[in-house]
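Hi support team,

I submitted a single chain yesterday and got back a structure, but I'm not sure I'm reading the token output correctly. Could someone confirm the output below corresponds to the sequence I sent? I've pasted both exactly as they appear in my results page.

Thanks,
R.
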Amino acid sequence: MSPNDKPLVWLYGDIKTPPLSADARVEAGFLLRRLQRGEDLEMPHSRPMPAIGPRCHELRINDVDGTWRVIYRIDSDAIVITDVFMKKTRTTPRSVIKTCRKRLKEYDDA
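Hi R., thanks for writing in. Yes, this is the structure output for that exact sequence:
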């Protein structure tokens, strides 16, 4: 990690094998490293999540049994991870959106 890389701040979730396959874990690590270096990721790897808040996005990691999502926010000093889950429907569950908003508010207020 370069001194210029932003740290990852994990509010919730892990990227471990299992439950992710080894290949999915490597892909997640590669994409997170790109974010740490300041790269802007776009579809198909990442998409904005304005329903959660400004600068919020979701990484999309394809795996053998489905697609994992890593919800994150890009701050000036860090990449803040708010959730990691397997997405089973086209839309993000309202409970995930609500929980991520709550975690970010608590983080910002701390």
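A quick pointer for reading it: The chain has a mean pLDDT of 92. Let us know if anything else looks off.

Best,
Support desk
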